[in-house]
User: What shape does this take?
Amino acid sequence: MTPAQTADPTGMHVVNPATGQVMATVPIFDAVQVAAATTHARDVFDSGVWSWRPPRERAAVLLRLAELMERDAELLARLDSEDAGKPITECLVGDVPGAIESTRFFAEATDKLFGRIAPTGPEHLGLVTREPMGVVAAILPWNYPLAMAAWKIGPALAAGNSLLLKPAEATPRSALHLARLATEAGIPDGVLTVLTGPGPVTGTALARDPLVGALSFTGSTATGRRILTEAADTNFKRVSLEMGGKSPQVLMADALDFGDELIENMIEAAFLTMGQNCTAGSRILVHRDIAEEVLARFVTAAGELTIGDPADPTTRIGPLINRAARDRVAAAVDAARSAGADVHAQELPDGLHPHGAYYPPTVLTQVPDGSAVLTDELFGPVVTLQTFNSEAQAIHLANSTAYGLAASVWTRDLDIALRLARSIEAGMVSVNAYSEGDITAPFGGWKQSGFGGVEKSTTAFDQWTREKTVWIRTR
Ligand code: NAD
Assistant: This one.
């Protein structure tokens, strides 16, 4: 249960995980209110005020939204930093510019979505048009609140849908501010509606709502499974799931040729957003010949990360999302230690807020085979390190979880890099970098990390549009 859910029944408290301080109280939308919102969204969609508006004009409004996000960039960064405990520099340098770029990308794509013509004989014309889904919904996680909102809002609105957006309990404030900016940009009432509330109440209501034609979910695999079941039990709404991960960082025997660049990328992969990142490189798989040196350099670099107040621009490691998450991570590390693993972690510094949910960057080695920490998503600043002797063994280890979101591969040998990239079962593999690619590159998971569609790139429109064949007899 997140801190927000412990609030009184008329509203949810938004709690700063660095201090335990209540930052705001937001409403809980129950099933009746969600139904009223989807009905209104349907009326607005049917009115054509947005859905039939010429794409060029929709593009102009969405570009205006991107401008307003740029104007309020510092505020948006502060809201995410306070709600999620994310270091402010991460928000200012990564999340907020990324969200603005995404909004611009999809705005610019609005009037570039062509239909197709079927290859018929001369007596027919088969038009294949791409149309909006109607009323659509998005359910968001708390780790990248603004960025995930932008990935959904951009293509959903560009395509002409009316979108209901449910932010995570812990992090609703940047989405609420985005809704204000959307109004200021000229997006009509009922086209973008933010509904706050707990997952089992507001989220379930959206997943079961018969007027919602498509639902895009980003969050844990367990919740994704529940949402898919709700959709199947109701109107078979189209569901896209972006879920958890346990991504490997594969270091071949020559990886140390990349020197400090390798170590810096590994640190970012492991500890960005305190490791609470779906694509976190939480499993280091390293060739036995270089394992000792890699471990020493990685542990040293992890020990140099500044742990502190997320509002301080020099902070690299803030608190976890709440104390329950911190306790869960600590228990998993304790269990691994009891099973025989070696734990490499720096001490938390003095002076941290006593109510902050802090946990230090941690590396686990000598973890016994079969331990849960090697296969389950931990969602904290904890990585495991395993060694291999051969390329085949590296591939086997890389593919040995139920997840398949991302992976990174380090080697100067292009043949090996390509073989690994082709063999690793993941939606995204980066070579000699830790990267998800830019906004032009599709983002999506395989296996239990993802299902039903991808984010980013023009491929994202597949989630938010459907094709129609118009068959015309010409003589
Ligand atoms: P979560 O599944 O607990 O919650 C995600 C959202 O689902 C929240 O808005 C929550 O209120 C809602 N929800 C919870 N129960 C629900 C229900 N029964 N019906 C409908 N909605 C419900 O996930 P989280 O803890 O917020 O986020 C962390 C997870 O998200 C991690 O597993 C992470 O890997 C994943 N994630 C994946 C991606 C990706 O793109 N693949 C990106 C970010 C985060």
Summary: Confidence is low (pLDDT under 50) at residues 1-8. The two ends are 65 Å apart (CA to CA). The first strand starts at residue 12 and ends at 15. Residues 297 and 462 are 43 Å apart (CA to CA).
